[in-house]
Design goal:
With about 375 residues, the chain is an alpha+beta fold. It has helices spanning about 15-35, 40-50, 65-85, 95-130, 145-190, 200-230, 240-255, 275-290, 345-355; strands at about 5, 5-10, 235-240, 260-265, 270, 300-305, 310-315, 360-365, 375-380.
Amino acid sequence: MNTLRGRPESGLPWIIRFGSLVLDRIYRAGSWLRARPPVRPLMDAVERLLGRLPRPLDPVRSIKAKLSLALGLAGGVGLLVLWYSLKWIPLNVAFIASAVALALLTLQIAAHGATVPLREMTDAARQMARGDYTRRVHTNSRDEVGELAAAFNVMAADLDAADRQRRELIANVSHELRTPITALRGMLENIVDGVSEPDPAAMGTALAQTERLGKLVAELLDLSRLDAGIVPMKRTEIALDDFLADVVAEAQVNHPSVPIRLDADGDLTLDGDPERLHQLFANLLDNAARHSPAGGSIRLNAALDGDDVLFAVADQGSGIPVAERERVFERFTRGERATGGGTGLGLAIARWVVQLHHGSIAVVDPRPGDTMTGAHVQVRLPARNS
């Protein structure tokens, strides 16, 4: 079946189909011509000139009434010219009144479909002001009103997702803060009441909970900087062998029961921010250590791949399902692999650091025969800052 801009046209007279096709081609040609550099300044000047013209129909509150007045005025001027060309022949007043009434009725019926999406958008905007972002505008129109409705639906979906993420953020932050605060409060209450002594073991537990709170606050601060667009970068040339050795040594202190093996090519260098990159690999190694089984190990690889440096952090845990591999880089997403102690922010911050360095990060499948059968997180960073 032939279609015209996605619509069935078998029921339309051929002259209407032909006229619609011609108008569509003229509109597209005009849009293409307007985008050309030699014509664009002229079109901008015409728009500025038209923008200074008076708007006598602004007080009218109905768009259908505006269309009626505009078409009536244009039609009246045309009929006046025609009447003049006919030597002011006498006119039948009843015939004119009937024609005007029929024209207004036809315009109301024809304009109804064009104004319904606008009324729906008005109602949806009012609902959004009350916190309801689920309303959508339904239209099959392909004109500017249809494009506006489509853009409105995209905006509503983005606002709905942002509002949902905000609620999840508040709930997750409250949960993550409550756990160490509750533990600290109980421990301090026992010490104050004399139930327990402030021995090194109790103080060590309190210190661990305090460090967990500090880490969460630091990660939230990083995310706030990310949302605000504040991304201070201090790039320098980094010798990766010493740099990665320091990161691995620090991670080994935090997770002494999980061996970490470093396998890096010699003389590798990278232009980047040492503090941010340290944060990246520390988060990746910490995530791998927390998900490694008893007796498992971690491997960190670094090798030159063309103009990039390819890093891979692999563990011997249960791995990450394919369906979850993209979501693990979202905020507060810990997945089924997570045990206790994680905030769900480490991989989100890792992706942010990678993006700051114009690289990529992804969870990939292990190579055949690889003894590291768990999760494999691959990071690709350009060796030189372009």
